[in-house]
Structures are given as structure tokens and as C-alpha cells.
Amino acid sequence: MDVRILAKPRSGWRVPPNMPDYEAARASFSWEAAERALAGLPGGRGLNMAHEAVERHCLEGRGDHPALLWRGRRGERKVFTYAELSASTSRFAHVLAGLGVQPGERVFSLMGRIPELYLTALGTLKHRAVFCPLFSAFGPEPVRARLELGEGRVLVTTSALYRKKVASLRDSLPHLRHVLLVDEGGEPGTEALHDLLARAPDTYEIGPTSPEDMALLHFTSGTTGMPKGAIHVHRAVLVHYVTGRLALDLHPEDVFWCTADPGWVMGTSYGILSPLTHGVRSVVDEADFDAERWYRLLEEERVTVWYTAPTAVRMLMKAGDELPRRFDLSALRFIASVGEPLNPEAVLWAQRVLGLPIHDTWWQTETGGIMVSNYATLAIKPGSMGRPLPGVEAAIVRRQPGGGVRVLEAPGLEGELALRSGWPSMFRGYLYDEERYHKCFAGGWYLSGDLAWKDEDGYFWFVGRSDDVIKSMGHLIGPFEVESVLLEHPAVAEAAVIGRPDFLIGEVVKAFVSLKDGYAPDEALRRELLALARTRLGAVVAPKELEFQSSLPRTRSGKILRRLLKARELGLSEGDVSTLETPT
Ligand code: AMP
Fold it and tell me: Which residues does a 6 A CB cutoff place in the pocket of ligand 1?
């Protein structure tokens, strides 16, 4: 699509953009200089995310400024100032200290977007423990796998989620010493968080923190094996800050709303850290997507900068053009999205109906923050992910047989999107899996696993994934995790899971199953398998569709060919089937 949306809005700039000239900013940018904008811990004791997000604003006299504007599911509204956030996160840090939690140990959260989630995240960082958010819609199996791999020492959750997803697994989690419930609860083997908080002091001196100390552990999925724990260090806050400034154009008086759940990296980097480092008001909505609710919230909170996801945008489009006209969205001045391809129609729809285009951004769990983006002052080419962040070198590369990479300089060539390694929020490892970590790098580049191409103006265009991971509603799902649960059923001989493209939610998780002798592929069994997967994995990860096949295609070495199943599903050419064991 050869449409460009000019950078300067018709109504002119409402506030001067932070980056007036992309090329000039790129040419003069240095991470050392950018770091000077961070406060650092007093007395030169290092760099701590929670200090940058909360304490510095209190020390700089902005403690009374609202930090979180929390909207409850049932219409409640609570405002937490930076000073209040400082006090409650200090209490939480003391609670951890009282429980004997050591810096570097992992504190997990499993709850919806309630205020306790935010104080858990920031209080954990203050104590120099590692924050590991879990998505509250995960079923017991993803919860168990992540707590086990991350050796969670503390879990903060609700009594309902604890009963449903953790209580029966407790014996298999020897590292999990403390479960703190945010409500009355009283479940055996748990403690009441609010009782502990009430007894804790409300100031806490953050101990010396090396910028390279582990701060966050975010789980992500690959094609094979169980989830990987991507390690992020306190220095990543520099990217949260810089991208808040350059990619999201945050100014101190902004009201910012990131719609993502902190159970996924976007909801932590941009739903907690980035906006708070800028001292802005950050909106948190506890409820799930609802078109009317969202427009009302934009109106009532006077949101100025809005960071959301393509699935949500498409659902808003589906709700019609009339609905937004009923609301006053005049405060909005910048919209951005991430997580899956943003179709050009969505960018143009927003321009027409909301009066502003959507600025696509690209990044991953491993990158810790936005790496490629459409900036306020750069013309948008709808359908493109934009250009690399100043300070980040991106390229299209091909892996070479010897282990190196070849950079494809000429525009228009498809290859893997790579980033020159060493940006501050680069993940520092996959927990306990050095081999997988090293496989992500070659010749000084981090290889993202995404296929893309670059045009003659330096814009990057997404093509697809080079592996079999699935993106459904913006959530990354590893097929292996789903297949493992299906294989637990006594009737299942083989299982393979793919993403079937879907206009609205990106991809639908679809399972192919072959049965053991003696089992009939009937409707009752199909339903039983879908129900099993839903109970064990949770609604987000579980397959929505399941098809029986007499056997699944495999390579000669025995690997199930998910790609072939996907090609057949889409009616595409089956490509090279020469490695198939039994072409069917
Ligand atoms: P996650 O690690 O869960 O954040 O998922 C990262 C993956 O989401 C990337 O590797 C891409 O495949 C996909 N993704 C993120 N942003 C975009 C985008 N702007 N366009 C297309 N795909 C995207």
C-alpha cells in the first residue's frame, strides 16, 4: 500500500515532540548521554528500576502527582500518588525482608490488574529481588511450569486463583516458601499480605544495586521445549525511559494508558515502568476489553497517549465507527500499538475515525523495550513497523552455514530481523539455559526469529515468524506446551499445534491429534480433549479447534511437521516434502 501519513497532524503539534528530527537524533544519540537523564541511587549506589519509577519523583518534589489512575471492574476509581506508591512499595519491600527473601530471589505475581500487582512489582524491585509476573488467565500447568523453572520463592496472588491453580501443586514446588494472599483468604499454608503490610514501615532504603543485577524474569515461548525465562537487569530501565520519550513521546503532564496486562512483557515495561519513569499519570483498567468501556475510559481519564494492541484495534473497528463519535476523545494526541502485525487498514481507520493514525512499534520479550517504531515526527507508512530506535542498529540478515550471518544491505530482501547486540535492555540470558541463549546470537547480532524486509527509506516490514510459535490476541504461545497437555490424555498418540490465521485475533490455536488404537475420533472425544486443555492450560493458551487425523506428518528424523499441517490448513503449496517420512 503506497500511502504515507505525514508526520505533522492537521491540527499541528499540541506539545512540541520530544524528537523533532529522527535523522538528527539518530546521528547524535549515545546511551552514555541518555543515561544522564536517569537519577541513579543516591550516593552513587547504582541504578534501581523502582528508584527511577517512584522514589526520584518524590525526591524531586512531585510526590503529590498522581502516578496510577486505577479503574476497577465495577466502576471503582482509585488514585495513587507517587508518594503513596513510595510508601506502599516500601512496606512491601520490608515484608520481603521480613520473610528472609534475598536479593536475586524470585517473587511471582498471579493476579489481575489490581493495585496489589503494582506494589508487588515495584516493592520487589526495591528489595532487589526479581519480579516474575504470571498472567492470571493461565491454567495450573503454565503456572506450575513457570514457578518451577523460576524457582519462585514468594507468590503473591488471590485466594480464588490460589485455590484453583496452585494449592494442589504446592507439594511439587519446594522452592515456594511463601504465598501471600491479597484478600482475607485464610487458605492453609498462606499469609495475608495486608496484615504483613500494615505492620511494615513505609520508608525503605534501597540497597546498592548494580545496573547488571537481575530485575525481571519474563517467560516466553519457543517452538520446542517448555517456556524460557528471559532475564532482564536493572539497566533495562534506560530503554524504558528512552522509548517512553522518543517512541511514545511522553511528556510529564501526559495521561498514559497501556492496555496490556503485566503478565506479559508489554504490561510490565509499558504498563508499569516506562510511564512511571516519566512521572506521568498511568491508567490501569482492571476489566477486560469492552469497546464502549474503553472509549468511555479514554474520555473520562482524558488519556493523551495510548499504547494498545492490533487485536484490540480490530475489535474496536468491529464495534463500528459510530460508537467513538459518542465520546469526547479530544485529549488523545498519540496512539501506538505492538505485539502482532498492525494491518494498514487499522492505521487508516484510526486516522479517519479517531482523528489520529496508529504508530506501530516492534519489540519482543527478549528486547525488553521498543526497538523499531513509527515516531511522532516520522511519516507513517501504514503496514510498516517503522524505523530503529536511535541507539539501536537493526538489519535484515541471513544465517550462514558456518554460524555467522550475512547482512542483506539491499532494500527489499527478506531475511531475519536482527539487532546489533548490546542495547541496555537486551535480555541477559534464558534462566538455566545458556545454550538456547547463545543460539540467539551470531556475528555480534541478536537474531529475533522474525522474518522481515527493509525498504529504501529504512522502514522495516514484518513478514512472519521463522519458527512455529503462535500469536493469538497478541499473546505468544509455544506449541510444545499445548501438545504436552494433549499427550497426557490416554487416547492421544500424537499431537501438533499450529496457529490458524484469523482476521480478528491474529491466530487461532488449532490442534491436530492422532489417536491410539481402540479409540474412536468422535465428537465426544474432541470435546473432552478441548475441555482438558482448557482446564489445564487456561483459555488463552488452550486450542479452540481440534481435528483428528489418522497420523501426523513427520520428518525422517521423527519431528512432527507443524509447518506442513499449517500449509495444508491454508490450502498452500506443501513446499519441499522430501524430508517427510510418509507423505500423505
Ligand atoms: P512477545 O515476546 O510475546 O512480546 O512477542 C514478540 C513477537 O511478537 C515478535 O517476535 C513478533 O513476532 C511479534 N510482534 C511484536 N510486535 C510486532 C509488530 N509490530 N508487527 C508484527 N509482529 C510483531
Answer: 220, 265, 338-342, 360-362, 364-365, 385, 448-450, 462, 465, 471, 476
